[in-house]
Design a protein that fits this description.
Blueprint lengths: L1 E10 L17 E7 L10 E6 L12 E3 L1 E7 L2 E7 L9 H30 L2 H12 L9
Length: 145
């Protein structure tokens, strides 16, 4: 469901002041928002979102966000929890895009290296050495053979 943030509050600590951390000891933050839209039959309810990978970093009043929401009863109180959409491989979209770009660059580099190896195996060794010397700026007379 798309929601427009009317109010936002970010928590890094529990009520007792201790940092919010996962069972593995990794820090996270809890973000409480109030949306402009009606959520689960109520207007102005706080929606709590746990953010483990900084996906809410750019959220501000007026930001439109995509969340799935559910009512949760805990200790006699009813809360509305929001969940961020699943991202690719447990990383944010930005991280996924960066990883994809790096993978494409690595593949291009590997293809270039393979082509270069193919070229080198089809020409005499002395031509390959001279070609490499030219690439790194060595004079052919400075080669030891």
């Amino acid at each position: 469901m798309k929601l427009t943030i009317r109010e936002i509050k970010v928590y890094h600590n529990k009520q007792d002041g201790t940092p919010l951390v996962t069972k593995n000891g990794n820090p996270y933050k809890s973000v409480a928002i109030v949306a402009e839209e009606e959520v689960l039959g109520a207007i102005g309810s706080k929606i709590y979102v746990n953010d483990f990978s900084n996906e809410t970093e750019d959220w501000r009043e007026g930001t439109v966000v995509e969340l799935s929401v559910e009512k949760v009863d805990k200790n006699g109180k009813t809360y509305i929890n929001g969940r961020l959409p699943k991202s690719s491989g447990g990383v944010s979209k930005e991280e996924f895009d960066n990883l994809k770009l790096l993978a494409e660059q690595a593949l291009n580099l590997a293809n270039t290296a393979n082509k270069r190896i193919d070229e080198m195996t089809k020409t005499p060794m002395s031509d390959n050495v001279k070609s490499l010397a030219d690439e790194v700026g060595l004079d052919e007379d400075s080669l030891p053979f």
